[in-house]
Amino acid sequence: MCSFSDYDFAPACQMIKSAGDILIAGHVSPDGDTLGSTLGLSLGLQRLGKRPRVVFQDDVPGYLQFLPGVDAILKPAAVDFTPQLVILVDCAALHRTGDGWVEKYLPQTPLLILDHHALRDDIPAVSIIDGKLAATAELIYWLLQALEVPMELDIARCLYTALCTDTGGFRFTNTRTHTFEIAAKLKAQGINLEEMRIQLFESRRLMNVKLMGHAMANICQSEDKKLVWSMIDTKIKKLWGAADSDTEGIAGQMMLVEGVKVGVFLDERVDADGNYVVKVSFRGRDGYNVGKLAAQFGGGGHYAASGCTIPGSLDEVWPCVIEAALLLVSETEVKTEGNL
């Protein structure tokens, strides 16, 4: 079990205390952990009289729009101040912040990295990274304690969201005893569990539900039934008048199939330059490292949940992705059998 005393927060606290204008950034395709952690940290730093601004390259998903502070999130082009400190949250690799926008502030600006992903860049920074944690929000919770920031409801809602999403509602194997302990202390601030359940797991746009149905109706399965995948192309989205954001949450549904070990969802999109790209989401059972799979294609994420974006059309991309996924399943099975 991890605890507050396992980490040296003193250097991070000193950096924060020495700065006024602070830029806090998270990764592209923001999820509950990177958003909840950045917003919770920002609210906490505001209580210290700091001037933090949260910056994301990509839009906030619809199901997370309820989080306190979302309306104040900036896009990189809208940053109109010179930061005295840059903090990367849930994002230890610079390329995960987007198209190089954060590099212009480095190395002349001090950098603090807070993350629970193993993937990181070798860049000058004060880093607190622990891959054993369920969510970066756990680090943020302890950092705010070290800074003596009083916990309050809005901060608690942000951090609880981060914990809840990265543990699948406290169902995934990354959930530890200390995760429950932190969640209990956040809940004590007055969190409405009905709101959390509905916002995070039950409130979906009708088009999102329709696309989910389409993906499930066209699901494919490997011969050994341990790999399943599905895909949605731009044609069906255009035909139905759907947005790219309407595919949120579909990846997790791949794991509903009996006996599945790895699930893959491929979502064809058109980027800002008019080129085809495929956003690929991987999900895996305990023992199947899909984070390694995403890294093969320039992406990242967790051991059991990861993703990447690959240039090219769906027809060009999906065969090589599924081939790599099949190889991962096969290698994992051989390794498992060898350990018996």
TrEMBL record:
Looking up Pfam families in the UniProt record yields: DHH, DHHA1
Molecular functions (GO terms): nucleic acid binding
In this chain the DDH domain maps to: 22-162
> Domain DHHA1 spans what residues?
241-312
This protein's source sits in the domain of life called Bacteria
InterPro entries tied to this protein: DDH_dom, DHH_sf, DHHA1_dom, Oligoribo/pAp-PDE_c-di-AMP_PDE
Q: What is this protein called?
A: Bifunctional oligoribonuclease/PAP phosphatase NrnA
Q: Which organism is it from?
A: Candidatus Avidehalobacter gallistercoris
